[in-house]
Amino acid sequence: MSSQDHRCPALFISAPASGHGKTTITAALARLYRRQGKRVRVFKTGPDFLDPMVLEQASGQPVVNLDLWLGGEDHCRRQVALAAAESDVLLVEGVMGLFDGEPSSADLAQLLGIPIVAVINARGMGQTIGALAQGMLAYRPELQFAGVLANGVASPRHAQMLRQGLQNARPSVPLLTGLQRDMQFALPERHLGLVAAPEIADLDARLDAVAERMSSTSLANLPAQVDFGTPPPERAFPRLLEGKTIAVARDLAFSFIYTANLDLLAQMGAAVAFFSPLADEPLPECDAVWLPGGYPELHLPALQAAQRTRSSLRAHAEAGKPLYAECGGMLFLLETVIAGDGSSGQLCGILPGQATVQPRLQGLGYQTLKLNLPGAVGEHLRCHTFHYSRAVVGAEFIARGERLFDSSEGEVVYRRGQVTASYLHAYFRSAPRTVAALFGGARA
Questions:
Q1: Ranges for the CobB/CobQ-like glutamine amidotransferase domain (predicted)?
Q2: Cα angle 187-387-396, degrees, rounded to a multiple of 5
Q3: Which residues are known to be catalytic?
């Protein structure tokens, strides 16, 4: 294909910091364009699991994470270029503030060549918005900016003050629109992220309401086209899981699953069979199990009552079959989990131990992991951790993650028989032979 085949209108939605409303605005734009009959694809910067759920409901299309450290430049460029070839508009939501992190949202926006919309919460701010916007533009002049979207505008007079400040900036910055202050459109949050989309009963009504507000602004018109070029070729992954069936827990308690991880399992030859512990479904016929992260602590009564799921998982582990558990999935394997409100649940007991949800964050950030499993020596699995619980696990630990920007000890990886568990969320593409070893695949 020529690069012409991979042109598409696109915007990169960012902000000076978290809490300015990036996800609400990105979701509203996706819903607005979808209501216009456009094919909308949305991407989320970074390792986040929760924002993509909201963005999927807004756009009606799968949302893929773009993470330069976890996945690499070529993987990010490929995903976006392929989406551009079959979409009418692309939206990318940034993470944290525009320049926060290494790599940052700014790095991704520059790599992809997408103009940035700076969402700024203007509550308690007037003409100073011009100085803030000018600083964002001047910090890295090579970036392209579409303008500012002011969130939380109190009145027409407030909007006039904001516009005046942006006109006084050097260079002047266009005010794309100002959304009036209306808390019913704020998406509810838990910990440092949003509440999962399925838990927000009126999410569609909220998205439709904000989309309606934006339908009379300049953003109702599609942005300028971006040429994403020919997508880089996909890597060739060894088919070390050929003929294997991997059972994957997927429901409201276990929903932290990167789309790229499922794709990698398929590329390596595995078939995936989903099951729901919340629905007390027994394991399907399988060779290995993946228990991804999520919020099991919010569903302790249902998980404690899930006798069929728990007994089939125990039988799987006792038969010496591979079981890999991440974060919330690891909690499900323990004997007891104590939630933040003090309630507790007796869970699988496959790993002896207990986890207790703490009032403060216990782990956050990127880590690399080297597992000396047969066939996987020399690889480094790239991971991310985010959890509020603290676990005491009575199992051998075989490795520790290495923090990317910190010399303190990383997360412990526990192993008992063929059961492997940790707080780490792994990005499978970064170490395919390690993934094959975790799921009992052939050696390279």
A1: 245-430
A2: 160
A3: 327
| CA–CA distance, 286 with 439 (Å, rounded to integer) | 11
Instruction: Decide if 300 contacts 348 (C-beta within 8 A).
Output: no
Q: How many angstroms separate the CA atoms of 209 and 197, rounded? A: 16
Q: What is the pTM of this model?
A: 0.93
pLDDT at 2 over 60: no
Find all residues with CB under 8 Å of 214, minimum gap 6, and list them. 28, 29, 32, 177, 179, 220
- The 10 Å CB-count burial string (b at 16+, else e) for 134-148 is bebbeeeeebebbbb
Residue 145: phi and psi, rounded to 5, are -120, 135
The encoded tokens of residue 182 equal 């209306």
Mean pLDDT of 19-43: 95
Residue linked to tokens 């990317």: 404
pLDDT tens digits, 296-306: 999 999 999 99
Is a pLDDT exceeding 60 seen at residue 1? Answer: no
Q: Which helix (H) or strand (E) holds 245?
A: strand 245-249
- Calculate the alpha carbon distances from 100 to 16, 27, 49, 67, 171 in Å: 9, 22, 19, 13, 23
Question: Which one-letter DSSP state was computed for residue 256?
Answer: B
Give the residue range(s) of CATH 3.40.50.300 domains in the chain: 3-227
CATH 3.40.50.300 fits 3-227, yes or no: yes
CATH, domain 245-438, list 3.10.129.10, 3.40.50.970, 3.20.20.140, 3.40.50.880: 3.40.50.880
